[in-house]
Specification:
The protein is 21% helix and 20% strand. By secondary structure, the chain is an alpha+beta fold. It folds into three domains: 135 residues, no CATH class; 30 residues, no CATH class; 157 residues, Beta Barrel (Barwin-like endoglucanases). Pfam families: Molydop_binding (PF01568). This is Molybdopterin dinucleotide-binding domain-containing protein.
C-alpha cells in the first residue's frame, strides 16, 4: 500500500516524466488492493488483500517498555481470485508462486530448517506466519500457555485449527492458537524494569548517546563536498548544492512557509463515507494576525501558491499556527484511490467524491532547482523529502 506519488512532495512531476514513459521503465508491476496515485502508472497490478483479510505479526515502533507482538488473522475471506491450489491471490502467494516458477533457493518443500535440522515447507502464507507465531510462543523464560477449548470457541480461533494442525507440530499449534485468541503475546508490565535496579528499564538502549558522532563529522556531503556536522546544529534550509532556499525564493515574493501535519481522526485511507463524514475537507490553517493583515475571514476561499504550483482551499483561522506559517492537514485531495472513474473489463466503476475532497499539499511540493533534471528536494541531514518549510504565498479568491 505504498503510495509515493501521493505522499512525497513534488513527486508527481517525476512520476509523469519517468513512470509514464515505457522507454525509461518498460515494465512496472504493483501489488496492492487499491488503484492509487502511484500504481496507476503500473502495467500490471497484482491484487492484494487488506488488513482484515491477512495474517501478520506486528510490534510497536517505540514508546512501549515491554516486549509486545500483536497477532493479525483474517476475519473475512478475501474477494480476490484463487490460485490453482485454492489459495487467494495476494502478495505472499504471488511471491511464493514466482519463487517456485524461478526455482529460487529459500522457498519450496524444504525451505525452513529448525534447530534440530528438520526441514519444513514454505509454500503458503500460513507456512510463514504460523511458524513465526511458534517462534513468539516459545521465546522468553517459558513458552506461552496452550489455548483451551473455551479460548478457541469464544474468540472464533477454532476455525483456524485445521490449518494450524496441518502446519505446526503437536506441541506448537495450541500455543500459537493461544496467541491468536489473545491478540498476540504481551510481556507483563512488571517486567518493564530491571529487577536488580528498578531505576533502569529492562529493555534499555545499550549503545552510548553520541553528542559528537565522528563517523558523521568526518564524512563529506556527496553533493556539496563539504564536511557534515557531527553534532546537533541548526541548518539553514538549503538545496542540494548548499544554496540557501531563501536566496532563490526570497521572503518578499514568498512570505509564508507551508507545512503539513496529520490528524487523529483522519488518514489518507479514510475514504468510506462513515469516516470521511467526520471531516469533509482540510482547510488551510492561518494565524489570526496574518488573517487580519490580509483581510481574510473564516471560511474564505484562498489560492495557495508555491514555485511548483497552486491549490485552492478554505481557510480555518487558528491561533495554534505560528504567524508566517500555512498548515495543511495530510490525507485529503486524492486523484486516485477511488476518486477517479475507471473501467475494468468493460465495467465502469464510478469515482468516489469523498476521496476527491480537500487538497494535497504534496501536489505543490518543491523539486530541487539546483540539480539537473527533476529531482526531489531532500533534507540535507536526514535525506527525507521536504514537506515542511516550503516557500508559499496566499491570495483571497473572489467568489
Amino acid at each position: 500500500m505504498c503510495n509515493p506519488v501521493y505522499g512525497m512532495p513534488g513527486s508527481r512531476k517525476i512520476a509523469e516524466s519517468i513512470l509514464a514513459d515505457p522507454h525509461k521503465l518498460p515494465l512496472i508491476v504493483s501489488i496492492d488492493c487499491f488503484i492509487n496515485e502511484s500504481n496507476a502508472f503500473a502495467d500490471y497490478i497484482v491484487p492484494d488483500s487488506h488488513m482484515y483479510e491477512t495474517w501478520g505479526w506486528v510490534a510497536p515502533w517505540n514508546g512501549v517498555p515491554t516486549k509486545t507482538s500483536a497477532a493479525r488473522w483474517p476475519v473475512v475471506e478475501p474477494r480476490t481470485s484463487k490460485t490453482e491450489n485454492g489459495e487467494h491471490i495476494c502478495m505472499e502467494t504471488f511471491i511464493l508462486g514466482l519463487a517456485k516458477e524461478m526455482n529460487l533457493p529459500g522457498f519450496g518443500p524444504n525451505a525452513i530448517k529448525d534447530q534440530a535440522g528438520m526441514r519444513y515447507p514454505l509454500e503458503t502464507p500460513e507456512d510463514w506466519y504460523f511458524r513465526g507465531g511458534a517462534n513468539i510462543a516459545f521465546t522468553g523464560k517459558k513458552p506461552t500457555e496452550e489455548a483451551t477449548d473455551d479460548d478457541l470457541s469464544i474468540t472464533g480461533v477454532e476455525r483456524l485449527v485445521p490449518k494450524l494442525k496441518s502446519v505446526l507440530k503437536a506441541d506448537e499449534w495450541k500455543r500459537v492458537a493461544n496467541l491468536y485468541a489473545h491478540g498476540g503475546r504481551f510481556e507483563n508490565h512488571s517486567d518493564a524494569y530491571d529487577p536488580d535496579n528498578r531505576a533502569w528499564m529492562r529493555h534499555r538502549f545499550d549503545l552510548p548517546q553520541l553528542i559528537w558522532n565522528e563517523n558523521v563529522g568526518s564524512t563529506r556531503n556527496t553533493l556539496s563536498g563539504k564536511f557534515e556536522v557531527g553534532c546537533a546544529a541548526w541548518r539553514e534550509p538549503s538545496f542540494g548544492n548548499g544554496k540557501p532556499m531563501r536566496s532563490i525564493y526570497p521572503v518578499t515574493q514568498w512570505p509564508f512557509l507551508l507545512m503539513s501535519f496529520k490528524s487523529t481522526i483522519h488518514s489518507s485511507y479514510s475514504l468510506d463515507s462513515s469516516l470521511s463524514s467526520l471531516q469533509e475537507e482540510n482547510p488551510v490553517l492561518l494565524n489570526p494576525r496574518d488573517a487580519q493583515r490580509l483581510k481574510i475571514k473564516q471560511g474564505d476561499r484562498v489560492k495557495i501558491s508555491t514555485p511548483a504550483g497552486s491549490i485552492n482551499s478554505a481557510v480555518l483561522i487558528d491561533p495554534g499556527v505560528k504567524s508566517g506559517v500555512l498548515a495543511i492537514e495530510h490525507g485529503f485531495g486524492h486523484r486516485d484511490l477511488g476518486a477517479r472513474t475507471i473501467i475494468i473489463n468493460g465495467t465502469k466503476i464510478p469515482g468516489n467524491p469523498h476521496a476527491r475532497h480537500g487538497v494535497n499539499l504534496n501536489e505543490i511540493g518543491l523539486t530541487d532547482p539546483t540539480r539537473k533534471g527533476t529531482t526531489l528536494w531532500v533534507n540535507s541531514v536526514s535525506g527525507a523529502c521536504v514537506r515542511n518549510g516550503i516557500p508559499a504565498k496566499i491570495e483571497v479568491q473572489k467568489v
